[in-house]
């Protein structure tokens, strides 16, 4: 049961009352891979994990572990571990017993259960709280119990559904490192759901971006970050400025686009022809104050740690998000420019 | 573990069981109070026939169901049933009992020495039961002389008394109570109804009397004990009673010792008895043991135990069993609480057997509908 | 093979359903055959054709009215038991001193059994019982009040035996509801009443329905107390008395079975109505994130 | 845990709330009234059972324990008590073991025929034993199962299993299914999920159902009588006999039997409540963490 | 009830079984302020909110609204709104009814309830899901219902406990903006718990940093970010490099410190004297590759969107976190430097 080479999802679909929560997810996961599922809230990430775990029956499609069909097996016989988005801790068991539960189910010797449980408790920094019941823990503490409970089993496949969402930045970084470390040292395969692209980018070998239950793009973090397949992925990957424009010129390298009160040069994604309605996508950090660009008026300046997040509006009333190192004052008029390589131009779909 | 029937259930009954048997005796009439001593004594002396007896007690109505269930399944584990008229009749009607008579009548010679009343009661048992205890029962009325200085002497006076003292006269719902039903069955004789044995067509005076009485009765308790309690605590002044219910509760202390009984002029005793019956399906060895047991029970020495403490006063079904033969406790209790006048009353009033089961049920039903239930209707 | 299993699983049939098997076997073996026999019996009366027994029952107002008599007793009793249990159980959430003792005391009457209840009611509420004595010596009344051997006696006995039953169930159901939900409602400005009837009550509804059904069924089949503390020929001639009469006094088993079947059908109608209403309410987990 | 002193101010707010609410007065008032009535009912029986003679007075003339001695001997009560306890514990144990898994499936799963099954499980509760008691006893006798304890236990299972199923269904619905899923993800098989996760969470429900089944079993006269043999009579058969059999019996001895019956049940109840809290653990943790 | 000028927490303390979950929190909140509670998991943030809302009785201390004592009032009479960390949605009510609940409690006219509910549903982008029950929603959707349910009441004080933890980056930004917008346009006062310092920094007027139930620092975002009061706050504010060192020299502006194999110049916080054991705190983004700094060997390079997060180790084995614009390879030897103004030196406590 425990080990496998590939796990193949074939058109995995799950419907809720006539609506597809997940439709036709096909994916091959290799042993040792770290896959992140990414996508907006409600896009079907948890549904995908639940299907993989066997907690939701599929409406269509199949799941194969090497050559064994998996989707007809009950969850407890798949040998996967899972961190639930809602934690789903056993309310009547102490932290320690929650974590030890899975080990006890495998009838490991008492001493080993103890050792591994202690280790897991330490891993998630809950030594002081080991005897509390879940109802007596803070939200983040509960989440950490959920993580410990899943990883202590060292399962062949770990499914994690937003495992760090309730942790503070520092702990989150530590946990990330621990999870990666475990993943690598134990040779686990991990499928990781997160709403945090930074987390996904920094942890995963491959990312799967979902939207409305459909796969938008599968690729390495760099691929997704620099070459999002469509405007939705771009939108999701932090291209906050999505400007509806029209193509004016197409060269081999660049595409000239024009919108209300501004012209830009960018890189086309897909076949584009002059006159096409398109969307130009630019990250805030790629829009910088510079000479000869689009003239804008600063509206909101937000302090964000080191940098300042600025919202500015063009004379035509289009809102742009940018970053600035120095603090401009609201009302200042500046001009912003962007590197054509960092301006992505997508065909405009009727959205 | 379930006991397999070891011996055959039909065929001739031997004189003695081949091997000592175990008897399960079920009492649905409260008869063991009177007869357990007899049985224990016999068993003590005849270990070669009866190894052990177990007693259980139940109420009569449920008896039939249980015996039926066992017989349908072909495993009867009740060997001897001690029952009153109701259970006896129900069993006869449902064909539950072994017809012991007249085949084996000669094995129980005591049956020829029955008191006249007991002999009439034995007729009700047909071929199936053997009368083991008997008493003339009632109807009597019971009251506290302090509260009722001049008790009614006739049925009409009773009615008049009730009219004058609403709520003071009480009898329990006949289907739940011996004295209640004795009162019911005794009325046709008192009122000289056309056919005291036919409640549907021959009781017109009785029913109109009861309906009239009903106007002044506030309560029909569901058990005789309750009427006794009400008598004791004063919420009832005159209640229906029988010889046994007169003596025994005073011995037990539920009714004050000074309570008195009265009779209504021209009453007939409506007698009562307990029977021993054997369910079909009981092995012949056991039948043999039972017959021997019954033979022993129907001897004067044993019958004297039936005096008890007036529970079924007098109790013995046989002739010539004077109180002096009874155990000393009986003699003492009856000496203190007994009523010498009973002898005279028994001797001087006619004895009648109770209604047969069908008519009795019909009478209960009619009483329930027209008397007990009259208050809710209209 | 797997395909078949897959298809069945889609319709909700899988090995987990095997958990039903022991219970199902018990009911099938121990109940269905005997019940079918009894049901069959009800259609084989000694006279009057297949439905003779039923006709006999329904044609006779005295018999037919027992249904109404029984409902008049059991519905209010069940309703009172449930309705009284809810606020008391609701007050008993949270911790306080002596809670366990109070719980035990409230549940105690469940141990009384019909006989003690009946005896106690007769002794206590009877014409010379302590209650009437107290009231009379206090001068509140001149004549003893009649509280036994009538409708009220039976009603009290149904309350005494039914209330702890309902209370125990409701207390347990209530404690399964996450208290955070009420707190959330409180922060939204809901006082105790809206909190109770908008949040707790709907979540409790399935439990209430079940409790009501069970107390109703218990009350509907009331027998010993209807005889002992009631007026079994009159106001409390409940349907089980009619059945008992047929079975054990008249030895008319077909009629008895028919009456019992009528009893079952009436109960079923009430239970179905209640459970039908229950399905209008939310059923499911009553707490926890997600 | 409990030794932490509650700050005075917290105490004050609480008291203030109790004083403030008329609802609370009403509830506690009715509870008190109920207790007074109950004390009267139980007290009058207990007093009577120790009284030698009790006529038209507040208290009996003199006291005695003879009624207990008599009852004890007349029915060899020790044996009967032992049998009663054995039978009822067996019935409770088996019906919980069989009933809870079944109610789990009915609560959690939807599958074709679910409603029919539900109805099937309802029937034994609704149908009075008159309909099926005798044929059931026949079947049991036929296979040699009746006439001793097996039969009594089996017969009592008929209404008990459905009873457990019915009461447990809402409890199971209250448990968040995600918790079970989590257990499965930890590799727990179905029976382990039951034993380790569901059972502890359902303890209050199981307790309530068990108590109710216990009460019903101990009080189930008809089925017990029909299937009992001479040495497998339970207390209720003896009690029922004293109560309604023909013959003369002192009121006090009935009262004594009833008190014995109640005491036994009370002991069982108190033991049960001593070890199990009818409040769900989840609620207990969240309720009032102090 | 509804409006107030200041809300004063006075030594608010809450104990659980002998352990202080929150101890002596004193704080004055002014009308219209946006306060963020920040701190590591389990530090008492939710406890503080619960105390404020009246859901947990105080173990000590008091809460005053202007001159009215508040802590004795039941929650429903305080008129605050709250987003629970665990959502606490009513499982039997649809999304719409969950959100409308509070409005109905105020007996508003039906039409207004409808209008405001619709608006709130739109605000949290749940138009499509309005008729679903909470159990049929994804985690993020549930969280949004919780937000909408609290803000639809426009309460005088809104308490939010990690309201955005389960939302994706894009939605989180949108929601942040919406929350700020509501806060400003309705003149609400908001107490906001988050584990995300970026969120706290960008949204709040003032931050309260808690640790182990105790207040560490109260201040504006900038104050906290640039002048953390102690090493714990620094640690929490993203100063990932916390290096135990010893003071070598103290000048008016700078402090010279020295540790195993490295010397740095930094800015002292508090009184420091040569020889003191101290902790030097530096953010990863302030440690840059440059001439003449501390020589380190690159160990791990992580792709993080635009920048690269690098872990490197000094020859003495101390791990440093830094950022790099170009991708160094693991094993590369580089030298890192830091601006003295950005190196904070804290007295070393026995930790
Ligand atoms: N009922 C309780 N019994 C015992 N300890 C408790 C209880 N509730 C909370 N605690 C403890 O109090 C501390 C503070 O909890 P709190 O929920 O306020 O933390 P938090 O700051 O909200 O953390 P998080 O960010 O993880 O949600 C924690 O250490 C927690 O374990
Ligand atoms: N039981 C259900 N009934 C109906 N719809 C459901 C059900 N469960 C989920 N959905 C819908 O399916 C879609 C996908 O849900 P899912 O939980 O997979 O989202 P998600 O990607 O995990 O989102 P999040 O990041 O918010 O957790 C959502 O729109 C949700 O509303
Ligand atoms: Mg999700
Ligand atoms: Mg928290």
Automatic annotation (TrEMBL), chains A, E:
Q: Signal sequence span per UniProt? A: none
SMART domains in alphabetical order = AAA
Keywords carried by this UniProt record: ATP-binding, Nucleotide-binding, Transport
Entry coiled-coil feature ranges: none
Top-level division of the source organism's lineage: Bacteria
Pfam families for this protein: ABC_tran, TOBE_2
PANTHER family with a match to the protein in the record: SPERMIDINE/PUTRESCINE IMPORT ATP-BINDING PROTEIN POTA, SPERMIDINE_PUTRESCINE IMPORT ATP-BINDING PROTEIN POTA
Q: Write down what this protein is called.
A: ABC transporter ATP-binding protein
In its UniProt entry, the species of origin is given as: Paractinoplanes globisporus
UniProtKB/TrEMBL annotation, chain C:
**Record carries keyword Hydrolase:** no
What membrane topology does the annotation report for this chain? Multi-pass membrane protein
From what organism does this protein derive?
A: Paractinoplanes globisporus
Which of UniProt's keywords are assigned here? Cell membrane, Membrane, Transmembrane, Transmembrane helix, Transport
Record's superkingdom? Answer: Bacteria
Locations listed in the record: Cell membrane
The regions listed as transmembrane in this protein's record are 17-36, 73-90, 102-126, 151-174, 203-223, 255-275
Q: Does the keyword Cell membrane apply?
A: yes
- Domain ABC transmembrane type-1 intervals: 67-274
Q: What is this protein called?
A: ABC transporter permease
Q: Give the family this protein belongs to, as stated in its UniProt record.
A: Belongs to the binding-protein-dependent transport system permease family. CysTW subfamily.
Signal sequence residues: none
Q: Could you tell me which InterPro entries the record lists for this protein?
A: MetI-like, MetI-like_sf
What Pfam family does this protein match (any one)?
BPD_transp_1
From TrEMBL, chain D:
Q: Name all ABC transmembrane type-1 domain ranges.
A: 81-272
This protein's record includes keyword Cell membrane: yes
Q: Which CDD domains match?
A: TM_PBP2
Record's subcellular location: Cell inner membrane; Cell membrane
Which keywords, in A-to-Z order, does the entry hold?
Answer: Cell inner membrane, Cell membrane, Membrane, Transmembrane, Transmembrane helix, Transport
InterPro entries on file:
MetI-like, MetI-like_sf
Q: Which family does it belong to?
A: Belongs to the binding-protein-dependent transport system permease family.
Q: Which domain of life is it from?
A: Bacteria
A Pfam short name: BPD_transp_1
- The molecule here is called ABC transporter permease
Q: Where are the transmembrane segments?
A: 24-50, 80-104, 116-141, 153-172, 193-215, 258-276
Give the main localization category: membrane
Q: How does it sit in the membrane?
A: Multi-pass membrane protein
């Amino acid at each position: 049961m425990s080990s496998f080479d590939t796990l193949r999802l074939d058109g995995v679909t799950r419907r809720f009352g006539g609506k597809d929560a997940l439709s036709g997810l096909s994916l091959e996961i290799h042993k040792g891979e770290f896959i992140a599922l990414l996508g907006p809230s409600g896009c079907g990430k948890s549904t995908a994990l639940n299907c993989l775990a066997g907690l939701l029956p599929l409406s269509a499609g199949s799941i194969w572990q090497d050559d064994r069909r998996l989707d007809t097996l009950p969850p407890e016989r798949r040998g996967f571990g899972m961190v639930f988005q809602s934690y789903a801790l056993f309310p009547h068991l102490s932290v320690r017993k929650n974590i030890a539960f899975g080990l006890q189910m495998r009838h490991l010797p008492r001493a080993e259960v103890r050792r591994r449980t202690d280790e897991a408790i330490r891993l998630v920094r809950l030594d002081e709280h080991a005897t509390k019941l879940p109802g007596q823990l803070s939200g983040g503490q509960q989440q950490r119990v959920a993580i410990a409970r899943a990883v202590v089993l060292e399962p062949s496949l770990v499914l994690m559904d937003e495992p760090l969402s309730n942790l503070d930045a520092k702990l989150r970084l530590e946990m990330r490192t621990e999870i990666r470390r475990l993943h690598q040292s134990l040779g686990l395969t991990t499928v990781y759901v997160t709403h945090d692209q930074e987390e996904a980018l920094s942890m995963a070998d491959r990312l799967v971006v979902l939207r409305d239950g459909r796969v938008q793009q599968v690729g390495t973090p760099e691929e997704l970050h620099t070459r999002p397949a469509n405007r939705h992925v771009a939108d999701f990957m932090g291209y906050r400025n999505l400007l509806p424009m029209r193509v004016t010129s197409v060269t081999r390298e660049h595409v000239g686009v024009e919108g209300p009160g501004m012209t830009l040069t960018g890189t086309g994604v897909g076949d584009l022809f002059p006159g096409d309605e398109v969307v130009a996508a630019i990250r805030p950090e790629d829009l910088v104050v510079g000479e000869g660009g689009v003239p804008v008026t600063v509206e909101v300046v937000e302090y964000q740690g080191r940098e300042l997040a600025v919202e500015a509006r063009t004379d035509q009333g289009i809102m742009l998000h940018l970053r600035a190192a120095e603090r401009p004052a609201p009302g200042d008029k500046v001009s912003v420019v962007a590197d054509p390589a960092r301006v992505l131009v997508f065909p405009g779909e009727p959205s | 573990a379930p006991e397999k029937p070891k011996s055959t259930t039909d065929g001739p009954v031997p004189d003695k069981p081949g091997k000592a048997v175990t008897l399960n005796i079920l009492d649905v009439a409260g008869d063991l109070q009177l007869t357990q001593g007899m049985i224990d004594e016999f068993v003590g002396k005849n270990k070669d026939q009866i190894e052990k007896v177990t007693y259980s007690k139940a109420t009569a109505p449920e008896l039939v169901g249980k015996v039926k269930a066992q017989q349908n399944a072909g495993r009867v584990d009740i060997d001897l049933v001690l029952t009153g008229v109701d259970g006896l009749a129900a069993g006869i009607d449902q064909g539950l009992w072994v017809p012991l008579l007249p085949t084996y009548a000669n094995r129980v010679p005591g049956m020829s020495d029955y008191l006249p009343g007991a002999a009439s009661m034995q007729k009700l048992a047909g071929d199936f039961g053997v009368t083991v205890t008997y008493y003339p029962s009632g109807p009597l009325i019971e009251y506290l002389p302090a509260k009722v200085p001049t008790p009614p002497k006739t049925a009409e006076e009773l009615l008049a008394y009730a009219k004058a003292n609403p709520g003071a006269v009480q009898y329990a719902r006949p289907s739940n109570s011996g004295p209640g039903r004795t009162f019911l069955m005794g009325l046709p004789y008192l009122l000289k109804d056309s056919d005291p044995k036919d409640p549907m067509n021959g009781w017109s005076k009785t029913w109109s009397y009861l309906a009239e009485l009903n106007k002044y009765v506030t309560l029909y308790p569901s058990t005789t004990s309750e009427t006794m309690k009400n008598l004791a605590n004063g919420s009832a002044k005159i209640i229906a009673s029988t010889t046994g219910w007169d003596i025994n509760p005073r011995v037990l202390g539920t009714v004050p010792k000074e309570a008195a009984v009265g009779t209504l002029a021209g009453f007939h005793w409506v007698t009562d008895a307990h029977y021993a019956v054997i369910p079909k399906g009981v092995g012949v060895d056991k039948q043999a043991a039972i017959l021997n047991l019954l033979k022993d029970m129907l001897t004067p020495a044993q019958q004297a135990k039936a005096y008890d403490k007036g529970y079924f006063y007098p109790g013995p079904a046989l002739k010539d069993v004077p109180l002096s033969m009874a155990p000393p406790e009986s003699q003492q209790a009856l000496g203190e609480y007994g009523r010498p006048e009973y002898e005279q009353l028994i001797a001087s009033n006619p004895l009648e057997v109770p209604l047969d089961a069908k008519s009795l049920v019909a009478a209960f039903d009619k009483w329930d509908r027209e008397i007990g239930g009259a208050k809710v209707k209209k | 093979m797997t395909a078949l299993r897959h298809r069945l699983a889609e319709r909700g049939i899988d090995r987990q359903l095997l958990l039903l098997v022991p219970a199902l076997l018990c009911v099938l073996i121990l109940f269905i055959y005997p019940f079918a026999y009894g049901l069959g019996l009800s259609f084989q009366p000694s006279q009057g054709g297949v439905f003779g027994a039923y006709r006999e029952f329904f044609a006779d107002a005295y018999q037919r009215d027992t249904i109404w008599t029984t409902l008049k007793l059991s519905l209010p009793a069940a309703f009172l038991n449930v309705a009284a249990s809810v606020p008391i159980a609701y007050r008993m959430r949270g911790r306080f001193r002596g809670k366990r003792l109070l719980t035990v005391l409230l549940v105690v009457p469940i141990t009384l059994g019909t006989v003690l209840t009946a005896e106690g009611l007769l002794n206590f509420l009877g014409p010379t019982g302590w209650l009437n004595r107290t009231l009379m010596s206090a001068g509140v009344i001149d004549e003893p009040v009649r509280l036994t051997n009538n409708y009220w006696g039976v009603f009290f006995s149904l309350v005494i035996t039914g209330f702890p039953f309902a209370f125990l169930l409701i207390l347990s159901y209530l404690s399964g509801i996450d208290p955070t939900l009420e707190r959330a409602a409180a922060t939204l400005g809901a006082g105790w009443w809206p909190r109770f009837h908008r949040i707790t009550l709907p979540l409790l509804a399935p439990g209430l329905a079940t409790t009501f059904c069970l107390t109703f069924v218990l009350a509907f089949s009331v027998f010993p107390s209807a005889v002992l503390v009631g007026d079994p020929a009159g106001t409390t001639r409940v349907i089980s008395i009619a059945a008992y009469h047929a079975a054990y006094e008249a030895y008319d088993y077909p009629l008895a079975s028919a009456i019992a079947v009528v009893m079952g059908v009436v109960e079923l109608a009430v239970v179905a109505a209640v459970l039908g209403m229950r399905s209008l309410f939310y059923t499911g987990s009553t707490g926890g994130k997600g | 845990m409990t030794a932490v002193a509650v700050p005075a101010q917290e105490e004050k707010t609480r008291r203030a709330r109790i004083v403030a609410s008329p609802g609370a007065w009403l509830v506690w008032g009715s509870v008190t009234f109920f207790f007074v009535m109950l004390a009267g009912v139980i007290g009058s029986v207990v007093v009577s059972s120790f009284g030698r003679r009790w006529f038209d007075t507040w208290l009996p003339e003199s006291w005695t324990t003879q009624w207990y001695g008599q009852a004890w001997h007349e029915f060899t009560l020790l044996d009967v008590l032992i049998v009663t306890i054995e039978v009822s514990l067996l019935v409770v144990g088996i019906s919980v073991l069989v009933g809870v898994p079944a109610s789990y499936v009915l609560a959690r799963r939807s599958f074709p025929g679910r409603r029919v099954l539900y109805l099937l499980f309802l029937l034994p509760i609704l149908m009075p034993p008159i309909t099926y008691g005798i044929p059931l006893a026949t079947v049991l006798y036929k296979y040699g199962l009746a006439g001793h304890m097996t039969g009594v236990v089996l017969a009592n299972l008929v209404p008990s299993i459905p009873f457990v199923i019915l009461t447990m269904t809402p409890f199971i619905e209250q448990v968040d299914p995600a918790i079970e899923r989590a257990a499965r993800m930890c590799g727990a098989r179905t029976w382990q999920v039951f034993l380790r996760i569901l059972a502890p969470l359902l303890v209050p429900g199981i307790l309530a159902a068990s108590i109710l089944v216990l009460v019903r079993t101990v009080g189930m006269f008809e089925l017990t009588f029909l299937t009992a043999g001479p040495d497998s009579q339970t207390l209720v058969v003896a009690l029922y006999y004293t109560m309604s059999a023909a013959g003369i019996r002192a009121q006090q001895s009935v009262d004594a039997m009833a008190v014995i019956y109640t005491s036994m049940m009370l002991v069982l109840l108190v033991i049960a409540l001593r070890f199990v809290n009818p409040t769900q653990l989840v609620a207990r943790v969240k309720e009032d963490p102090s």
